[in-house]
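This part of the workshop introduces the protein records we will be handling. Getting from the letters to the tokens is the skill we practise here. An example says more than a description, so a record of this kind follows:
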Amino acid sequence: MAALRIQPQTQMQMQTRGMKVRSSVKKMCDGCKSVRRKKGKYVYIICSKNPKHKQR
């Protein structure tokens, strides 16, 4: 029976959100900023007002 027991996820794993992956990233609000990485090859959007707006 011990092998069938499911381990609960930690609180940290459930709250972590990733970025939205899109072919065309756009600013969604006033708090959004565009960030260029890898010599301008990648453009990311980060947001200080709403973390759900993160995109890559």
